[in-house]
Amino acid sequence: MRRFLSADAAVTAGILVMVLAATTARSFLTPLFSSGDEMAHFDYAVQVWHGDLPVFEEGLQVQLPWGTRPPVQWTSQHPPLFYLLLAPVVGPLYDAGHPYIAGMAGRVLNTVLAAALCAAVMWAVRPLSGGRRWIPWIAGLAAGASPWVMGVGSAIYNDDIAALELTVVLGAALRLITVPRDPAAPGRGRIWWVLGIAAVCASLTRLALMPLVLVVFAALVLRGLAAPGPLSRLRWLLRPTVIGLAMIGASGWFYLRNLRLTGSVSGGHPDWAMAHTDRTDPPSVPEVVTDPTYWAKLLGVFSPGNTPGGITLWGLLVAPVVFGAVLALVAARRDRRTAVVGGEAAQTVPRPFVLPGVLMLAVVTAVLLLMQFVYVSKEAGNLFPRYSLPVLAATCLLLAWGLGGLRRAVPVLLTAWSVLAWWQVVGYLLDRPRISAPDQAALRPDLALPLLVVAVLAATATTVLVVVASQRERGRAHRA
């Protein structure tokens, strides 16, 4: 146990250092407020610091000497939790006349959230790792190598915190759904509290998370009705209901405000988008679903660009994910067969309910994809890989099975994948401009490049540690 805990702590520490260093390096190589979205998020936080909430038509209140200024406050439809966290970080610095330090401080907060997201992915996927301790480690490594986790973590965006909240919701639900039918299973009460707090936070961060949380609640209710275990069927129904009421109580006022100001609960302005962008004739939902470009945009979490292709899409994501799905299915069937033929001794060990958890992740992913396709068609929106970050845990779980499902192949597959993933990350960052344009904030390559070296060393050391730990575990299992 001490060996496992020390290895788990070392891998977690390595992933955190890797993500913090790489994300900060990217922050120093990206001009502050170089996108209208980042400036709008920053303005929202400053308005919250001043005791106000932004209004779409009133535009931005901050005055900055550089950056891309959007014509309207197009982040005003988001609930305020992220900005409540950001406000005491950026508000006093902005008021004191230090907009650059304020913006970089806001980026530091998001960098910490990016690292927390990778740790949450490791925690969330553990119930579906099949007892293979290196699967969650590989999932965390994969999450930390995503250019989009780094990208939104190196700027002021609310994507990473939204993904973090839903990842915690999924991890808690997986523990409640897939735990053995054992009344003495420890920590169940605490898991319900974790689920509730994360769900309430999700409702206060993005409306788009609400349907995904509802899918999780439906899975919990069905699990309770089918196999209640230590809880009664009534409690399986009441607990998600109470959490749902808490979500409405915490965030309902904001969505009513959206309804009052814009005529819709979402607070979107598709008419303005079609009038002021080139998306004047949005495609229908079937056209979006059948267009490979939109799929590539949503599947591009391991590509620095908006629309990946080639080895980035197929080598880093599609191939290992498909292979992982096959290996996970084979492992689940083998584990079930072992439990059946193992006799009475094997049957005394409660078996986890894997299938309900897998189905829950599949439905959550399908609902998210459908919502994004409808967003393009009905709201005149555009797609980016960061929109699929809420299901990063499901993506990295399958990818981890693809790289770690065959223990003997872990050294080759994980090393090759890590080299390819970090090769493109390093190449992308080294190709970034070292000197900013006259109308942009200053860049700091002198700080970014040493941090990038630290990130690569941490990624290398962590990959080696995972490989060694997986092979030692294989040797102990073989001897047993």
From TrEMBL:
The keyword Transmembrane applies. The chain crosses the membrane at residues 108-128, 134-154, 191-224, 236-256, 311-332, 353-375, 387-403, 410-430, 450-469. It comes from Brachybacterium rhamnosum. This is Glycosyltransferase RgtA/B/C/D-like domain-containing protein. Keywords: Membrane, Transmembrane, Transmembrane helix. The keyword Transmembrane helix applies.
